[in-house]
Amino acid sequence: xxxxxxxxxxxxxxxxxxxxxxxxxxxxxxxxxxxxxxxxxxxxxxxxxxxxxxxxxxxxxxxxxxxxxxxxxxxxxxxxxxxxxxxxxxxxxxxxxxxxxxxxxxxxxxxxxxxxxxxxxxxxxxxxxxxxxxxxxxxxxxxxxxxxxxxxxxxxxxxxxxxxxxxxxxxxxxxxxxxxxxxxxxxxxxxxxxxxxxxxxxxxxxxxxxxxxxxxxxxxxxxxxxxxxxxxxxxxxxxxxxxxxxxxxxxxxxxxxxxxxxxxxxxxxxxxxxxxxxxxxxxxxxxxxxxxxxxxxxxxxxxxxxxxxxxxxxxxxxxxxxxxxxxxxxxxxxxxxxxxxxxxxxxxxxxxxxxxxx
Length: 358
Ligand SMILES: [Zn+2]
Hints:
By secondary structure, the protein is α+β, with helices and mostly antiparallel strands. The protein has eleven helices and 17 strands. 29% of the residues lie in helices and 25% in strands. The protein has an eight-stranded mixed sheet with strand order 1-2-12-3-13-16-14-15, with helices on both faces. It has a six-stranded antiparallel β-barrel with strand order 4-5-8-7-6-9. Strands 10-11-17 form a three-stranded antiparallel sheet. α1 (3-12) crosses α5 (173-188). The longest helix has 17 residues, at 321-337. The termini are far apart.
């Protein structure tokens, strides 16, 4: 599967948390040739089933990457202009942004600011507060009143830019980069024997509530799951201990939110296959779908694999596509070895007391 064109299509699709249907339909269409069954569940998760080759009943391994992107919400209509609140955006990156307001129809708009000529010396030294910003649709107050209402969602626009080498910049690489990775892994599995059924889920509302991770896990009851998300890449000003080199390979998370044997198996496979990778120490709950998966129903043994991006939660997130192909190799190798015996090995069991008493 060609990564770049698929990623471009996916990042350009609109999918704010709670309004993912455009992105969901595209993912369902891309997943259909790669799976036996594809459906969209009650909350909007896209779920694909790729049956394994092992004897029935086959255990289920779930891959999950989130469909939604951060967004703005119209909070008031101020004549011809829209006031808004944000969910996940750094307000400093919004001045000069191009947006689409998802009103009665998609409406292009911009977030501007006063010309420097009209600012006071003090204003020029500070960033405007979110409350001072407005979206300008270029329409009259009357047109705005007809097409927009308070509560409408707004997504940032921006071109999909090919940077030098294998690097790209776009909005919504969080987490369409990993949705693309998941699709590429399903494609690779067409040529690789995998004993267990693979359930691929593009989940809704990760950025907001983790709704999709919880409901999909409850609905599917996987025997094992791997969440796929972005993490922080190194860039000027970022602390080294919290970031990973861009292009340094997938980050394999380790900590109580993850099952230690899944983490170790991923690390061992990366070593064995000489896949560049990084260890992502997560001492608490991860801010990803891995948490929702781990704590739903009876609890599922969970892993987390992330790809570093720069400028997370802006319209110019930057990724290295080499990290995508490496992650696909790692996931494919993991799924190829994940058989019933491996899953049995993950179970927590009481020690054999009778043996101990002898
Ligand atoms: Zn994410």
